[in-house]
Amino acid sequence: METVRFEELELYPQVLRAVTEMGFEEATPIQAKSIPAVMSGQDVIGQAQTGTGKTASFGIPLLHKVEPHSKKTQAIVLCPTRELAIQVSNEIRNLAKYMHGIKILPVYGGQEISKQIRSLKGGAQIIIGTPGRVMDHLRRKTIRCDHVNTIVLDEADEMLNMGFREDIETVLEYLPEERQVVLFSATMPKAILDITKKYQKDAITIKVVKKELTVPSIEQYYYDVKRKDKVDILTRLLDYYDPKLSLVFCNTKRMVDELTSELQGRGYFAEGLHGDMKQTQRDRVMKSFRNGKAEILIATDVAARGIDVDDVEAVFNYDLPQDDEYYVHRIGRTGRAGRTGRAFSFVKGKEVYKLKEIQRYCKTKILAQPIPSAKDVTNVKAEKIMDHIGQIIEEEDLSKAINMIEDQVNHSDYTAMDIAAAFLVEALGMLEKEAGKQDNFEFEDTGAEEGMVRLFINIGKKDHVKPGNILGAVAGESGMPGELVGTIDMFDKYTFVEVPKEYGAAVMTAMKKAKIKGKSVNIEPANSR
Ligand SMILES: Nc1ncnc2c1ncn2[C@@H]1O[C@H](COP(=O)(O)OP(=O)(O)OP(=O)(O)O)[C@@H](O)[C@H]1O
Ligand SMILES: [Mg+2]
């Protein structure tokens, strides 16, 4: 398709200036087609892939449609999540930077309503909000709709889905008969298209057609992963690919919480995000993800739609999404605005069929991929260290250090090569300690109780050791609740302890460092003893 420059779209000079300042050079295909259509006042359904600039596709025309001299509310944009309402409002504010007298206000749940009411009193021509809170203001008459001539549903298919449909209908009832209804999304399932007729008149459909629904610059892989191995494989992939920012999707809030503390415990800069958190906390997490302080965001689908954060280089489906559409939106958090990205999905057993279904829906291929080995991770780390070293050699004054090494070489049997190699081992070792806090152990079935594994402990001479000492060491060192420790069988020279399977590896790792009655212990999985 021919490229269209923003100059050709007859924008206000103030808007053109803002667009240029935001670094947009050409209009994306969806922008080129839908900016004129939305400006003309027609009802529009716009569909284009994730990260292709749909926000400006409706944001720019809204700025052209509002009358800045009237303080009345003239346009409403509805978004499915609070984070998206904030983001869309910021993007439109950026576009409006050089237009005077236009106020753009986000209103969403979890934010103090009295504060919102005060802001609304000042008059805002464009309101961007979540349906529940907008409805609330309409009922209180703190938002008045008599002059609203445009309503936009961002993520329209989600908004017209069962969870939101009633709210949307209520909001629409408040609007004047003569109004423009604009819908945008990366996905438009047929069932939803059927019901859009109820809300729109002679809508034109602008679909930027591509072969596949997902963005081609996102590499998509899957791993067949047992539940218990998921965390290890996730950290392996994080270490290997070392993405600047990553987004990890789980299907439940509980899983988000669990995985967040697991990764934090292993030393990763990870934060969780889900709907049960307080809004102030959600805001804090989003802020630290946007500024890169949190490198890994672990979230429910609350972060799946619309969220635009630079430098998200990898998306993980820790759990496979329930709906095909959600796969498209989740992985679309990377590979935005022409960038590349990677998407990794974990599947177990029968979920492979679900994955096939997703590929059919998206018309894309998700490839099986071997898990990088620990050695692969070491290699990429060594490469990174060598890159860094190269940079130091290029940029720093090394004369003092060279003198010191020369001294070493002259006064020992070591060559300069020995010394350099030892430095590399030291640097890698330090990294390894950070990355591999938990060793992997194979537990064989040794007739332990259901869900338990049997560990063999040898503390050498065991004159004064009592079951209580063992219990204290196992529970105390590993952080496992003591009441979970199963049977402790003490024999003449050795002891068997049963612990829940999921704590097996943690106990083993912890006990290697533990002492019982001042003595180091020897611990291993009980096999055929
Ligand atoms: N013409 C353009 N040139 C370069 N960058 C652009 C252009 N238009 C928008 N962008 C930038 O591209 C990114 C993605 O835009 P946006 O969030 O609007 O995508 P989207 O199509 O709404 O995606 P999603 O379906 O995920 O909601 C944003 O950072 C935006 O500022
Ligand atoms: Mg969007």
From TrEMBL:
SUPFAM superfamilies, per database record: P-loop containing nucleoside triphosphate hydrolases
GO molecular function: helicase activity
Gene3D superfamilies per UniProt: 3.30.70.330, P-loop containing nucleotide triphosphate hydrolases
EC number: 3.6.4.13
One Pfam family, short name: DEAD
Residue ranges occupied by any Helicase C-terminal domain in the UniProt entry: 217-378
EC category name: hydrolase
Entry-linked SMART domains: DEXDc, HELICc
The DEAD-box RNA helicase Q domain, residue ranges: 4-32
Motif Q motif location, chain numbering: 4-32
Helicase ATP-binding domain sequence ranges: 35-206
Keywords: ATP-binding, Cytoplasm, Helicase, Hydrolase, Nucleotide-binding, Stress response
Family statement: Belongs to the DEAD box helicase family.
Protein name as catalogued: RNA helicase
